[in-house]
Prior knowledge:
Dna Ligase, domain 1; Glucose Oxidase, domain 1; 8-stranded mixed beta sheet
Amino acid sequence: MKKNVYQFSEGNAEMKPLLGGKGANLAEMVKLGLPVPEGFTITTEACMTYLTQDHYLTEDLKSQILTALKHMESSSGKKFDDTEKPLLVSVRSGSMYSMPGMMDTILNLGLNDKTVESLAEQTQNERFAYDCYRRLLQMFGEVVFGIESQRFEQYLTHVKEKNNYASDNELTAEDLKEIVKVFKEIYLESVKKEFPQGPIDQLFMAVEAVFRSWNNHRAQVYRRLHGIADDLGTAVNIQTMVFGNSGQKSGTGVAFTRSPATGDKHIFGEYLINAQGEDVVAGIRTPEPIDTLAEKMPKAYEEFIKIADLLENHYQDMQDIEFTIEEERLFVLQTRSGKRTAAAAFKIAYDLKEEGVISKEQALMHLKPEMIDQLLHPVFSKEVAKTAQEVARGLPASPGAATGRVVFDAGQAKKYVEDGEEVILVRRETSPEDVEGMSVSNAIVTSCGGMTSHAAVVARGMGICCVVACANLTINEAARSIIFDGGVIEEGDFISVDGSNGIVFLGKLEMEKTEESSVFKTIMSWADEVADLNVRVNAETPKDLTTAFAFGAQGVGLTRTEHMFFEGKRLTEMRRLILAGDSAQRKAPLKKLLEIQIEDFTNIFNITQEKAIVIRLLDPPLHEFLPHGAEEIRQLAKELELTEDYLEKRVHSLMETNPMLGHRGCRLGVTFPEIYEMQVEAIIRSACGLVKKGINVAPEIMIPLVGVKKELTILKELLIQVADKIIAEENITLDYTIGTMIEIPRACFIADQLAEEAEFFSFGTNDLTQLTYGYSRDDAGKFITTYQQKKLLPADPFQKLDVEGVGELMRIAVERGRQVKPDLKIGVCGEVGGDPSSIAFFQQLGLNYVSCSPYRVPIARLAVAQAAIMK
Amino acid sequence: MKKNVYQFSEGNAEMKPLLGGKGANLAEMVKLGLPVPEGFTITTEACMTYLTQDHYLTEDLKSQILTALKHMESSSGKKFDDTEKPLLVSVRSGSMYSMPGMMDTILNLGLNDKTVESLAEQTQNERFAYDCYRRLLQMFGEVVFGIESQRFEQYLTHVKEKNNYASDNELTAEDLKEIVKVFKEIYLESVKKEFPQGPIDQLFMAVEAVFRSWNNHRAQVYRRLHGIADDLGTAVNIQTMVFGNSGQKSGTGVAFTRSPATGDKHIFGEYLINAQGEDVVAGIRTPEPIDTLAEKMPKAYEEFIKIADLLENHYQDMQDIEFTIEEERLFVLQTRSGKRTAAAAFKIAYDLKEEGVISKEQALMHLKPEMIDQLLHPVFSKEVAKTAQEVARGLPASPGAATGRVVFDAGQAKKYVEDGEEVILVRRETSPEDVEGMSVSNAIVTSCGGMTSHAAVVARGMGICCVVACANLTINEAARSIIFDGGVIEEGDFISVDGSNGIVFLGKLEMEKTEESSVFKTIMSWADEVADLNVRVNAETPKDLTTAFAFGAQGVGLTRTEHMFFEGKRLTEMRRLILAGDSAQRKAPLKKLLEIQIEDFTNIFNITQEKAIVIRLLDPPLHEFLPHGAEEIRQLAKELELTEDYLEKRVHSLMETNPMLGHRGCRLGVTFPEIYEMQVEAIIRSACGLVKKGINVAPEIMIPLVGVKKELTILKELLIQVADKIIAEENITLDYTIGTMIEIPRACFIADQLAEEAEFFSFGTNDLTQLTYGYSRDDAGKFITTYQQKKLLPADPFQKLDVEGVGELMRIAVERGRQVKPDLKIGVCGEVGGDPSSIAFFQQLGLNYVSCSPYRVPIARLAVAQAAIMK
């Protein structure tokens, strides 16, 4: 028979999966000799067996519970249903991960019409005894029978109003007796059942109810939001009651060993005299700050401080401790690592390390990389957000907060900005033509698209806050208005965007800015010390590069040259090039683009200096550069001096049914080599310029979308020819390398062949994921949300690497590539390059670096450190 | 030192890779004791070393050649440059695979101003000697120095005209001496060099020229067309000359041991008296049929017949033999397997088996599966095609020949057909809306798209001939005309389409029909006997199913249910369904579609009876069913009683950027389960209908596009529920299975998980290839042709399975799937299912069946037999 019940004395802190966090920590505290009320824990396994197989309490389980109960009775000297010393217990849920308030608790179990009298007699406190009983009736009714709490509360309120009481404390024993009577009637009325008088019946019913509460709606939602698996189950803790509500020498409270808001080292908490646990949480009475306890009950206070210190040292982390004082005797009911703000987390980890409690590595493991977002992006203060009017909720695509006037297109955006206004670009979805408008906006809001839609990717790349998929907004770009559930927003109206939480507010909300603290900087330097993987940035604009280096990027993992072609005169020249009828007509735009690109790369190299930099040659399908719609075609035709008819046909001929799978990347390089030649010329000429000034730039030129070896062979030969000719002309030494992006499944299988040509690999996990799943990033939004809701996908694979599929392809590629070149430098430059859980996998794979958007650089730096520690 | 030169007596027929076909067969004939003129072969390896490394004849190679030459001199008793018995040799190319006429040959090498006199004296035939010399000058000039043949021919013609000669035979010795003089002047004039008088110089120069001829343009083109690798190289055969031009008792000829046109068993060939080899080919004189030789030179004829029999028996195949008779002495100069028509190939293989020369398996291996196309599709006779006016050449997408009137859309197509006319649908490209029009057309022609474009796939599926990618056609669908290089074609004009060769002709060409012969049927029955893999068909229309079963399909590997929704009232209901705003509005169209589908499946099952049949649930993106363009939207809005505005918005909201990677297949099944429920209901109800009549239909229901296990789990559960409810209602036994299509790379990696749910797998190699390469079938035409030309791809991976990438994914899927279910039934239903070279790989993988379009079924039947034999 499986052991389903553990005495507290049989467990320890390591047993969280089986005993839940609460049960394991109670056991640990018993081991430490702390004053913990006697009890036992029913395992999470028992819960899952109940939920998935039995759906009732088996005789075996019942007998194990009763054995544990006997033990409790004999050592406490109290007994269930005893007329002299009745045993009362609490029944509490507690799963592996803390899910505060999500599951159910019942206090004072064991009371009935008989034992309530015994308790009154024993404590000489009738009021207290009936207060316990009415609480049990209320909690048991809600939890076991699902009676609405309203029904009990209404009557309680009625009694208080009738007697003009300000608080529950004023209720008399008589009042409470009456209340108990009425509460029992509520049972009969609501569920046609009597309140069960047998304590054992109460106990079994309570255990079942707690088991079932694992699957209640709010618990399910919480788990989905926090990525907690559904098959963990909850443990049930049965513990002897101690009574904070047994008089003025009793009380109950919660305290943190350090400030959860700032991390400062002082006890932070509150308590209530003459109250039971839930009264503090419920907020009916205002609790008092913990330090006032020093005066009221100095002995208990002193003991608590000692215990708090001991627990923090024992767990090597800031603790959140629940305690109860019964007649001046202190009991600890729970301890756990306390939730805290990002700022507090960093301060606490830093302090604990400085205090010598934990090592540098432990300090780093204390932190969640994603928290850094909160530290670095400006935010709306909670107060402000609470009272503001929400317009929409969407996906939090790019963190931060911003306010500005609504605009609907790039032209208006620029016009407003030129007039000194701040703007937020709102569109159904964005396209490359909007990039210029996006770059001048404070935030982007779209009604369509997902976390990796164009708007989301570009916004994150630019470090602009962004909310996408605001499905309830009807954006009428033509009418220049937005219809939302509560009204209409016109162009020029102010809105505020919270990109970290995916909320759009009406009006201009106030913001708080954040600065990198010295604590933060120190911790990040520890991270760099322990890391194996380097962290690079995906960036091409001077602004992004500067930001990323300030954030500690160790190089550039991806410079997307196409982003440089999307604005102003560059776009015109690019269009002229694409639309040219023959190579003679191509010459002029190529020459102009060459000049522009030389300027671009010179600017970039001036920032990156001698840092590693991967430059990807042109990647997107040609038609991305083309005009859409009749009006734009008309204008462009005029500009390029072409007939509209010709232009329309040419644009049409460049259109593709599935551009993502079309004529792009190295395929363009092969069929249309002039562009790559021009780009490499620009890279090499710019680099030569810096080398002459004594700065040894070493560009890593990357050929995208390779699927067959010969693509790489042909293009490498071509590009080397171009590059070496210039280097010879310039008569200098320039170290450049040519590598390839691994983003086509087939490339993974032929990685050995590619490694014969490539001097480095960089995984383009975005495309690789698209092709491995057959999901278009532009379109997957239509079903990926449903998929996540229905749990077909554990996470969005564009956000978190899919280890089973994409990961396996990567493993094959790394193995085969390194078979040919054992020292082959391999990085990742897709979205997941900045995702901590993906980074752990990249560490296992033995990659050399990850690369991500500027604002994710610090997150990745912490994540690579953690990955190195856990390896 | 490497052995680069082999005496004929040192080789044999197995050494083709090293000695080339001609060299190896000459060696084999020497071994057989046949009268072969003395000689030796320089290896293909020597050629490749010359071409890729040395670019000159090394001293080592020269010395090996000279040693072989010495041997030849001593055993023939003739010597180079000898004044009494001058040795003359032929220098001929000969690669591993026959490339007739593609590379160069020089005869009579060794002649010069001195030896020509000796030859005249020795043979007492001055005319003969100078005829040989002028031939050498001409061939050597062309081959070694690249002098245009025109220059020599012009003068020859001039002499003949001056003297009123009808043929070369009338040239006198004096004429020929003058010709030789003038030919030598041509050398000086053209290349400023004398004709080299030294026979050794001649020989070395000739060998180099033959080596180089491996890379001449026409040889390269031939290799590309016939899939011959570029790194094989050609051998060079040096052989003592025998003279068919040494008088009236001499001659030269070519003969087949059986008819290459029909396969009938009789010697088939022709010869010329007093001529050298190239005269027969050149067609200047009309050769005489071989049987007349029996009278003219009975001894030589008899000997030849004996040798022909011997060679055919020895090689166990019909032979193509070159011979020369010198003064009534017969010499065999070459033998090889003769090229033949498809009909002849089948007849010969059948006869050889029946004659006991070869086994059943050998007979099957004699045949090229692709040949069957020629046997089964009607064709234009060669005579007709030669004189017809070509309008365009494109890709031969679907074989066969057809004529008809040009139409530009489905509506016109139907109108013409209703009037009793035959039509050919001509479009820029086709879309699902054209399917009805395609089905009534005799042929399809498009100006865009590739071998797997919509037009190509559907046409092959329907067995309709089709030419795609006719780039030179400007199809103006609005103006209803086609502009081609030679003029304009209007709607209603006749054109003729040769789908086997990818040619479009003007006018209505006459056709020849083909019937399955009894020989063909017998051979196919042999194929079925030896095969391991079954052959199924991809089909859903009664016509296609009937055709396929007549062609021997053993089941249905893919029934595409979406094809059933594209016509007439079905499309309207499907549109009503998709455009419905809520589930209430969906009910009516679902009910109608259910009725239609029950009818569909009943019709199908009535044909397939108890044969295995895989039915794929709806696969394409929803918007494929939607109207395109304002006019169609207007009509549909009227039909469905919706506002145009609403309809346009709804259509727009269903549009996807990359539909191939979008909301389709099982993703629709998950988010929109009503359609799959309806389809399964229809399948099961129809099947029940047949079961009640005693026909045990056993549908295999296939869920497409699965990438994560839970898609399959959820849908399987749902569909089983629907199916089992109906089966219980009907109170019968029905064996149905539920399986999945493996077409997403990720599915291959999780095949073990999928095998836990799936009762069968079917590889969708089209999608799998798309995703493995990242090539959209709709768009890849833009670069795939360039890729094949530049040899980046050995073949179109949609036509021939890519073993390195797609194949490796398939191997992973088979291994993992069978790990869980050792007997898992696995098939292939993509385009490559009918491709012989891909089938060889599927045999290795251990698949259970392949499935292909109806007209490829016999090809696949032969290919699976060959794969089983070669395993």
